[in-house]
Write a structure and sequence with these properties.
With 201 residues, the protein is mainly alpha-helical. The protein folds into 2 domains: 85 residues, Orthogonal Bundle (Rna Polymerase Sigma Factor, Chain: A), CATH 1.10.1740; 96 residues, Arc Repressor Mutant, subunit A, CATH 1.10.10.10. It has 8 helices and 2 strands, in the order αααββααααα. A two-stranded antiparallel ribbon has the order 1-2.
Amino acid sequence: MVMEWTTEATASWQDTREEFEKLMRRHHRTVYNIAYRLTGNRDDAEDLTQEAFIRAFRFFDRYNREMPFENWMYRIVNNAFIDMLRRRPKAQMISLDQPLNLQDSDKDVQFEIPDTASNPETIVMSEELEDYIQRALDALPPDFRTTVVLADIQGLSYEEIAEAMHCSLGTVRSRLHRGRRFLRQRIEAYQQARARGEVDP
């Protein structure tokens, strides 16, 4: 009787592992891309991706099969990213309400600007602004960064983001609006400073 139970448990564990590995292979690239956008470099992105999948496997028994696996992973990646930042006390987070001072420039740029320029969705798709967009993403507070990445790079709906990040639709809209505004301002300010020769290309 004990032997039968052990055999069934082993078979069940094997099935669970195979299911998880199949999902991991299918979604690994997407998870890595999100991790890269959140961390801004390959080494941290690889570490974050690995940590996220380790956590996912550890709690795979809690995964609701009715929920898209990638949405569940977005939540895990975000939590792992927050924990990564907490382990780095020297990392500086900025407020979206404070002025931005460009390096090599004596002028402050306020984040509050008219919302009339080209939107971040278009900017993200432009290869020539790849470095700018990553620098801007790196400067965003973690929750704002994750919201922008999920919306404008991964293409999730407000509802999907709210579910993945465990927050309200109003919070998603607020973070996305302010995050996009900052993103646009950061990129435009850098471009203008570069055109004036105030920063290196």
